[in-house]
């Protein structure tokens, strides 16, 4: 059966490509317009903690970690403008097309607002819609291993816009959540710093473990203040564009394919 033989060969080639991915993931962090001095100070502290945790605890080489938030003179890769964001997305795609098969983690931090038909990620200068962000991510090759963390409010629409094979997408909020500043970014960094996030103690923090630990810390923040919970984080681990707060087996299996290994373990990513 020539057709079946050809399909098997193609599957084997794809599996070889997937299994050949070695080394730590490339991490791109896009932090948008803070809005005021108080948030600027908060973002700088948060980004500092995030960078330190990724490079020290998870041994991400500094050349694989880029943070777009401020000027290069301040130690950033550049301001998180629409042009810089789109240009960096293009560079990431080009690297993948040239054979870089290491996993790619994309993290969005900042403010967003609901608009008719979707939402906007607030940037210095022109904003960008979640739909446009999803379109850029969907242009990545289907075989490219990509994890997207959208940590701001009104980010649920990115789940469907960015969905695709081998992609895992997390949003801080669900479709019915009000437009409200999220606790997700703080909980996300805290979960990365917490050894208990590695729930099965295998030395690897999978996306599903990190999602569940972050979600639990978000709920703790609301409960400690006796506040009504206003954000229901969503995980799409199987690429179908539909997320859940309590991941299904299919979503968990998909998200478990991607993980970070702590520096005291043998480096082994994806």
Could you characterize what this model shows?
- This protein has 270 residues and is an alpha/beta fold.
- The protein has one domain (24-261): Rossmann fold, CATH 3.40.50.
- The protein has helices at 2-19, 37-57, 82-97, 130-138, 157-162, 184-193, 207-224, 249-255; strands spanning 26-31, 65-69, 78-79, 104-109, 112-115, 118-121, 128-129, 146-150, 167-171, 204-206, 234-236, 259-261.
- The strands form three sheets. Strands 3-2-1-4-8-9-11 form a seven-stranded mixed β-sheet, with helices on both faces.
- 42% of the residues are buried.
- Keywords: Signal.
- It comes from Haloferula chungangensis.
- Residues 1-21 form the signal peptide.
- Residues 233-270 are annotated as: Disordered.
- Number of domains in the coordinates? 1
Q: Strand tally, please?
A: 12
Which structural class fits the helix and strand makeup? alpha/beta
**Nearest-angstrom radius of gyration?**
18 Å
Shape type: globular
Report the uncertain regions.
Answer: 1-21, 266-270
Mean pLDDT: 89
Distance between the termini: 34 Å
Percentage beta strand:
15-25%
In the CATH classification, which architecture applies?
A: 3-Layer(aba) Sandwich
Number of helices: 8
**CATH first level: which class?**
Alpha Beta
Strand order within the widest sheet? 3-2-1-4-8-9-11
CATH names the topology as Rossmann fold
Q: Portion of residues in helices? A: 25-40%
